[in-house]
Every structure is written in C-alpha cells, then in structure tokens.
Design a protein that fits this description.
This protein has 345 residues and is an alpha/beta fold. The chain has two domains: 11-66 and 170-344, QueA-like (3-Layer(aba) Sandwich), CATH 3.40.1780; 70-156, no CATH class. Helices cover 18% and strands 27% of the residues. It contains six helices and 17 strands. The strands form three sheets. It has a nine-stranded mixed β-sheet with strand order 2-1-17-16-14-3-12-13-15. Helix 5 packs across helix 6. The chain is globular and about 60 Å long. The two termini are 23 Å apart.
Length: 345
C-alpha cells in the first residue's frame, strides 16, 4: 500500500467553529476546483458550484442525518468518561468508543482491560462486552436505556467533537440541508456547504441531484487504521440515474467519501451500479481505484488520514499533492467546518 499524504497543518488553518460563527454563510465557504487533466486549479466559492459542473452531470449526496452520539458516563471507578456511539449492529448492540477526557492524548481513547459497565444519566448504562476490530479503540456494547436509543440521545447526547472545536455547537450545525434519515455518528461533512439555493442552481443548469444513505461511524484516529464497516443504502432510482448519466457521457460526482464508498460498494466489477442495502467494508484507495465515481466534492482532511487514500484513488497522487500544497499556500480552512474541494477529471 502506498504511503498516505503527509504535510504540516498549521493550527491557524483549522476551522474551530461553523462558518456562520465567522460571519460566512454556509455556501460562501471557499471552494478549490482541481482539474486533473489540465492541472488547473480554480479558486472560487461554494455558492458557484453549478458553474464548475456541466449539464448532464450527476451529484450524489448522502442523506444520512447526524445523531447526538456523544454521551457522558462514569466508569466502575467513578471516573468521568465520554462514550461515542458509532454504529448499531444487526442484533441491537452498538459499536462504541470509550474516551477518558482527563487522560493523556495517547491514552485518551484506550479501552478497558476487559468488560466494563459504564453508568449513564438517570440509571441508564452501557455494558462494554468485547473489543471490536483491532487496536482497542472500539468496543461492542449493550445499551440499557429507559427509552428508544434515538429518543434518549435527543435528551442526553450531543454531537461528537474533537480538540480543534473548543466549544459545543447545536446539532443543527452538524446537519446537511438534505439530511432525512438519522444514523451518522459524525456529520457527512462534505455536504455541509449545500443550501437550497445551491441545489436550485444545479437543477437549473441541468445537473442532477440524487441520494444514497451511508451512516458514518466515528472517525479513524490512527494513521494505520482502515475504515470500519458501515451501513449503506443505494436506492434503485439512484442506481438507474447513475447508469443513465454514464450512458449519456455525464460525470458522477460524489459528495464526500461516504458517497464514494456506498456507490462503489453497489457496483459490479464492470462498474454498473445496482440497488444495494446492507453493510459495506470496502476500502477505496490507490490499490482499489473507483469504478463509478468520476469526481468528488470533499473537505480538507488532516495529514495521513484514510480519507486521503480514497481521494488519491479519485484524483491521483500528483493532483492531490498539488491541491493540498495550494490549499496550504492559499490558507484554506480544514476539518468539518472548513472550506471545500471539488476534484474533476
């Protein structure tokens, strides 16, 4: 496997709050357009997205809505811990991440030595049963709650956030305008800059917009950690629109890495997309390039993350390196509340 893109990210280029808190509308964040074939980079704003696409192109969005997946708990020694609910399993159990907010950075997410019961608000609890995957970060857990999980989370949970976001923001700050189906532990953030006006301009230009659903789990925090399985759904009408777009010579543009994963999971070896419902463990990267997706709308990701491997599969290493060098030089903002990037063939 090729090495992941590495670079120094200055703290001043990390977006610490939603753009609206900086006096910038959702769709007025900056947008870099990378054209692979011509080596051209265009600097514009997200509001002008439609002008960068052609009639007959198809934009595929992820309609998964973010849930308030972070909850406070106490461990068996009565120490404070934070639990991130990542993904629910078919048997009703959850995959969770247990974090100790007062621990050192390297030990903050390390799980317990064995099974453990964590106390939640009002007598509820989470029982950590067994490790999930390698590395000790995630656990399979059984939740004992007095109400349905999503109802309980609405009352007691909050959006997951990391150190680059120093204060809490309401759940609405972590939702896309087209989100309809709750289930993502973390916001499918590539779609955050979309507004009703941006979508209307796409439609007016003859660019199609169609959904998939992929419920994203907690972010991969380790440089050598691959994405975990996630739930995905590609409806038959989206599969049909992808096929029609390809047949007519249009481009399929994914909004975010989650959409790439869903569409490529629904594709057969020849690149034809079929309706899909279930789990995907597909990992897209330079060793497994895309068969369906031609372009991608994405954010700016920190060094050496698995997202960069997927972007390399779409953009190629040279174009990706050129884009990130320009983003640093031009002071684009990174992370979920930052600026945007459109990569086209």
């Amino acid at each position: 496997m090729t090495t992941r893109l590495s670079f120094a990210l200055p703290p001043c280029l990390e977006a610490h709050e939603p753009p609206e808190a900086r006096g910038v509308a959702r769709d007025e964040v900056r947008l870099m357009v990378t054209h692979r074939a011509s080596d051209m980079l265009v600097h514009t704003t997200f509001a002008s997205l439609a002008s960068s696409l052609d009639p007959g192109d198809l934009v595929v969005v992820n309609a998964s809505a973010t849930i308030p997946a972070a909850v406070d708990a106490r461990d068996e020694r009565d120490r404070p811990v934070v639990v991130h609910l990542s993904t629910w399993l078919d048997d009703g159990r959850w995959v969770v991440e247990r974090r100790r907010p007062t621990a050192t950075a390297t030990e903050r997410w390390r799980g317990p030595a064995g099974p453990e019961v964590l106390a939640l608000h009002g007598g509820a609890s989470i029982e950590l049963l067994e490790p999930y995957g390698d590395g000790g970060r995630l656990w399979v857990a059984r939740l004992a709650l007095p109400a349905p999980t999503l109802t309980w989370l609405e009352a007691h949970g909050r959006p997951i956030r990391y150190a680059h976001v120093p204060r809490e923001w309401p759940l609405a700050s972590y939702q896309t305008v087209y989100a309809t189906e709750p289930g993502s532990a973390e916001m499918p953030s590539a779609g955050r800059p979309f507004t009703a006006e941006v979508i209307a301009r796409l439609v007016a230009r003859g660019v199609g917009v169609t959904p998939i659903v992929l419920h994203s789990g907690v972010a991969s925090l380790e440089a050598d950690e691959a994405p975990f399985p996630e739930r995905a759904s590609v409806p038959p009408w989206t599969a049909a629109r992808v096929a029609a777009t390809k047949e007519a010579g249009g481009r399929v543009v994914a909004v975010g890495t989650t959409v790439v994963r869903a569409l490529e999971s629904a594709a057969d070896p020849g690149g034809a997309v079929h309706a899909f419902e279930g789990w995907t463990d597909l990992v897209i990267g330079p060793d497994r390039p895309t068969r369906v997706v031609d372009g991608i709308i994405t954010g700016w990701h920190e060094p050496e993350t698995s997202h960069l491997q997927l972007l390399e599969a779409v953009a190629g290493r040279e174009a990706l390196e050129r884009s990130y060098a320009a983003a640093l030089d031009e002071r684009y903002l990174f992370h979920e509340f930052g600026d945007s990037h459109l990569i086209l063939p």
